[in-house]
From TrEMBL:
It comes from Paenibacillus athensensis. The lineage of its organism: Bacteria, Bacillati, Bacillota, Bacilli, Bacillales. It holds the Pfam family BPD_transp_1. InterPro entries: ABC_transporter_permease, MetI-like, MetI-like_sf. It is found in: Cell membrane. Belongs to the binding-protein-dependent transport system permease family. This is Sugar ABC transporter permease. Coiled coil: none annotated. CDD domains: TM_PBP2. Its main location: membrane. It comes from the Bacteria. It is a multi-pass membrane protein. Residues 68-282 form the ABC transmembrane type-1 domain. GO terms for biological process: transmembrane transport.
Length: 295
């Protein structure tokens, strides 16, 4: 690193391409969206500045708030259902002595599939007539539990949440496993001598030591939930009756189906603002808990 800093040309060669990519694919689109978010624009004619009208419309749009609520459900499901399951699964796999590589590969496989493939695959699983889930329920004598899972208001969004969790669990399990295997063995051996074994050791020793990785996973879950689009789009397209709509799908429909590009850009800005706020709140809470824990 010191050698690089002593050679300005090398420093420029390494940093400028990255900065250009950042400007092209993040900063420029963000500023463009910010510009058009304050206009009335159909994507073709000249954009007309309308001040805060788009944002006022969003705040009074009940369908937009349904989408916001569903994004919050995404976050809550990820944090309070998906992450505890990821942690438990990673702890179990970390203790497996035989075929551990097989289990890691099997768990990780869904993460390498595209979201479109996962959405189509699980749409067949949830199919009311030929779907694996209904066939399984019928085979074990629970025919009364059979559903039109993606068309029932009570189960449609939960079905999407389960599918999304299935796709990404493996990726997060690998992160947690890497953190677990990085724990020095002498710490775990000392804990065993002191009587901390099994789940007691996991809760008292392992989990606190991998806390930084868990914080990163929560942050990734929050940001991923706020920008969720493709899985909902492929599986339900926001149906039935818009109850599975999320902010990104609602933004897409406003832009490419109705032609309200100005309003869609305002929604994009709100997604960005909400994500930043939630991330800052989480970071504030984690810092407070660390201050309380470590004095």
């Amino acid at each position: 690193m010191n050698k690089t800093l002593k050679n300005p040309l090398a420093y420029v060669l390494f940093t400028v391409p990255t900065l250009l990519l950042y400007l092209m694919f993040f900063l420029y689109p963000l500023l463009t969206s910010l510009r058009y978010g304050f206009t009335q624009w159909n994507g073709i004619s000249h954009a007309q500045f309308n001040g805060l009208d788009n944002f006022v419309t969003a705040l009074h749009d009940k369908y937009f708030w349904v989408a916001v609520k569903n994004n919050i459900y995404f976050i809550l499901f990820s944090v309070f259902v998906q992450i505890p399951f990821i942690l438990a699964l990673a702890l179990l796999i970390s203790r497996v002595k035989r075929l551990s590589g097989f289990y890691k590969t099997t768990v990780f496989l869904p993460s390498i599939l595209s979201t479109a493939v996962v959405g189509v695959l699980w749409s067949f699983v949830y199919h009311p007539e030929a779907g694996l889930l209904n066939k399984l329920l019928e085979a074990i004598g629970l025919s009364s539990w059979k559903h039109v899972w993606l068309a029932d208001e009570a189960t449609a969004f939960l079905s999407v949440l389960v599918t999304n969790a299935w796709q990404w669990i493996g990726f997060y399990v690998v992160l947690v496993l890497a953190a677990i295997f990085a724990i020095p063995k002498d710490i775990l051996e000392a804990a065993e001598i002191d009587g901390a074994v099994g789940w007691k050791q996991a809760w008292a020793i392992t989990v606190p030591l991998i806390r930084p990785v868990l914080i990163v996973i929560v942050l990734l879950s929050i940001t991923g939930a706020m920008k969720a689009l493709d899985i909902v789009f492929v599986m339900t397209n926001g149906d039935p009756y818009g109850i599975t709509e999320v902010m990104a799908t609602y933004m897409y429909k406003k832009a490419y189906r109705i032609g309200e590009y100005g309003y869609a850009n305002a929604i994009a800005i709100l997604i960005f603002v909400f994500t930043v706020i939630l991330t800052l709140i989480f970071r504030f809470l984690t810092r407070k808990s660390e201050e309380v824990q470590y004095g």
